[in-house]
């Protein structure tokens, strides 16, 4: 490995890495300015720019040598702080107690570097300080997303952590070697620096891709959730929060096909609020809406199985799809619904009842039908039978359940 690295020129590698970083930084800056991103993306893009400029200053020194070296080292360390800050915001983690630690380390490392550069020039001590600081920043970036429970990890987070753990480890090794070295080459064009450059050439495109991929993966996840919410809204009745007619029709067709395939029974219950027009006219639409919501709560409480569907069928009509139930079982459930709703005691005076002793409260009537679907059967026959049973319940004097 030593012979392999010896064949590379450190300054040429530094130039290639600087150009590569600047090119990829331009992509990130463009994305941050012209595309939708998330909190933290700007800090990560700025981190790439900071490292690129710092690397260029460190190796090509457009200003006075010591000033270029010192400013380059500061900008390269700033990379770790900015990237960590961006990942904190991206992971939705509080930075109040975390970032100050990085600022303190940055201040200490900067002071040590200034001392061994402008007061007592010592290249080895400067490399130890710089590499230790970089190892600290990069290892925090690698480890903390998995050590913090509240950290929201997104796509490519594992790639991030692995790459930064490798980079942080190499910087730690470099600091250890410089600490025990007798003499260090100025500007660090040694084999360890060449290895870091080689890693940067391979890793930098992956890191930039990971940053962008993280953003688009999060955007896709939000879009998927938004579509699911929109789908739920489009299939939900706004007043009662039950399934609407569209969802009922889809569920009915699906359950019919499943019952036909498995030769299992299925039942349908159609319910109608008795004398609802009179109730609405007498008490007002807001009170009428509250009455419908109460019935919806009763239906939701009785349609407890995952396969059961409670829906607003239209106006004051509601319906239940009860897969796997026989007619007798569905009629018993409908009777429970009728009884519980009547016991809710929603006042409705001024109507005539067939039964003299019947209470002046809002009631429902229900028609029930059940069958085992056959291949040649018309799936609408079951709904027609339940609807006919509902009319029979109305003809009996309302507040009744009739099984077709």
Structure description:
This protein has a five-stranded mixed β-sheet with strand order 2-3-1-4-5, sandwiched between helices. The protein starts with a helix and ends with a strand. The model has no long low-confidence stretch (mean pLDDT 86). It is built from 13 helices and five strands. It has helices at 2-6, 10-34, 41-60, 65-90, 99-119, 123-147, 157-179, 191-234, 245-262, 276-283, 285-302, 327-343, 380-395, and strands at residues 266-273, 309-314, 317-323, 364-371, 401-403. Strand 4, helix 13 and strand 5 form a beta-alpha-beta unit.
Topology (elements, then pairings):
Layout (H helix, E strand, L loop, with lengths): L1 H5 L3 H25 L6 H20 L4 H26 L8 H21 L3 H25 L9 H23 L11 H44 L10 H18 L3 E8 L2 H8 L1 H18 L6 E6 L2 E7 L3 H17 L20 E8 L8 H16 L5 E3 L1
Parallel strand pairs: 4-5
Antiparallel strand pairs: 1-3, 1-4, 2-3
Helix pairs in contact: 2-3, 2-8, 3-4, 4-5, 4-6, 5-6, 6-7, 7-8, 10-11, 11-12
């Amino acid at each position: 490995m030593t012979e392999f690295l010896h064949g590379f020129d450190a300054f040429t590698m530094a130039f290639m890495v600087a150009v590569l970083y600047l090119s990829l930084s331009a992509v990130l800056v463009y994305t941050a300015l012209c595309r939708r991103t998330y909190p933290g993306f700007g800090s990560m893009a700025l981190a790439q720019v900071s490292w690129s400029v710092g690397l260029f200053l460190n190796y090509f020194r457009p200003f006075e040598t010591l000033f270029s070296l010192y400013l380059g080292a500061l900008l390269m360390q700033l990379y770790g702080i900015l990237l960590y800050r961006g990942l904190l915001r991206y992971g939705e983690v509080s930075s109040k107690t975390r970032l100050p630690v990085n600022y303190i380390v940055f201040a200490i490392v900067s002071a040590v570097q200034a001392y061994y550069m402008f007061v007592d020039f010592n290249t080895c001590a400067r490399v130890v300080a710089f590499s230790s600081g970089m190892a600290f920043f990069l290892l925090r970036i690698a480890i903390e997303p998995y050590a913090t429970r509240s950290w929201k990890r997104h796509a490519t987070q594992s790639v991030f952590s692995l790459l930064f753990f490798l980079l942080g480890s190499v910087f730690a090794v470099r600091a250890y070697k410089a600490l025990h070295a007798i003499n260090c080459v100025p500007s660090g064009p040694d084999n360890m620096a060449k290895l870091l450059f080689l890693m940067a050439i391979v890793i930098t495109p992956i890191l930039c891709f990971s940053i962008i991929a993280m953003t688009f993966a999060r955007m896709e996840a939000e879009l998927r959730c938004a579509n699911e919410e929109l789908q739920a809204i489009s299939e939900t009745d706004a007043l009662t929060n039950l399934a609407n007619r569209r969802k009922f029709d889809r569920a009915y067709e699906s359950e019919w096909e499943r019952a036909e395939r498995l030769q299992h029974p299925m039942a349908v219950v159609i319910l109608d609020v008795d004398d609802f027009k009179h109730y609405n006219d007498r008490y007002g639409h807001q009170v009428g809406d509250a009455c419908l919501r109460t019935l919806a709560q009763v239906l939701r409480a009785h349609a407890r199985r995952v396969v059961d569907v409670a829906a607003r069928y239209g106006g004051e009509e509601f319906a239940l799809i009860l897969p796997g139930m026989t007619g007798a079982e569905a009629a018993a459930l409908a009777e429970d619904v009728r009884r519980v709703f009547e016991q809710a005691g929603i006042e409705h005076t001024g109507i005539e009842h067939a039964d003299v002793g019947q209470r002046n409260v809002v009631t429902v009537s229900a028609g029930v039908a059940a069958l085992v679907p056959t291949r040649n059967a018309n799936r609408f026959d079951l709904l027609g039978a339940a609807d006919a049973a509902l009319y029979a319940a109305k003809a009996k004097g309302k507040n009744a359940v009739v099984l077709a």
